[in-house]
Every structure is written in C-alpha cells, then in structure tokens.
Write a structure and sequence with these properties.
Helix content: under 10%
Oligomer: single chain
Order of helices and strands: EEEEEEEEEEE
Distance between the termini: 40 Å
Largest sheet: 7 strands, mixed
Radius of gyration: 14 Å
Number of helices: 0
Length: 120
Amino acid sequence: QVQLVESGGGLVQAGGSLRLSCVASGNIFSINAMGWYRQAPGKQRELVAAVNSGGRTNYADSVKGRFTISRDNAKNTVSLQMNSLKPEDTAVYYCSGRIITTPLRTDDYWGQGTQVTVSS
C-alpha cells in the first residue's frame, strides 16, 4: 500500500506565508507527477500546482507568482511554498501522487488533507 501524509497547514493572516509538505511511503517503484489540490467549502476540488518527474511545473492562474511547488525524488516528497496568502486561498489542501507500485501498476493516491485558513 501507499500512503501520502501532509503537514504544514494552519492559520495565517493575509499576506503571510505557509509551507506544506507531503511524503509518500509504501510499496513505491517510482512516482510520476505529484501535486497539490485544494477544496474550499461548497466548491469543487481544484488543482493548485503540479510537478512531473522531470521537474516541469504547472500552476493555477490564481496562485502563479505566489506559490512554488518543489519535489525531492530521492525522498518521495513534494512541498508547496505559499506566499502572499489571501483569504480566498482558504481551503483544505490535498497532496496527490501518480505512483507506480510493484508489480508495475499506476494509480493516483491522495493524502488526508490539511486545512489552510487565511484571515483578513
């Protein structure tokens, strides 16, 4: 089995910063893309940022220039540095990974989510 565990959420004032981290563990052969999604109350889950195994990144327009995603392939971790936070960034943030396990099978895995609250 594979587990993704997030950490780093919390409460911050508008304009502040938070750093989210996620570590994948278990029966992992390799990891393709890793990313962060978020879901605010009453809204659909949306992609925030993603990074593939080659380091190419993709960001939602709403976070470009404020958030930075990074990954450590050796440690199976992905992080999200969030700066200049806004109240509209308030949501539960989920880590996701497209992971190849042994035998060679690819599935999408999700963490349990971590709450980020930005006060105005």
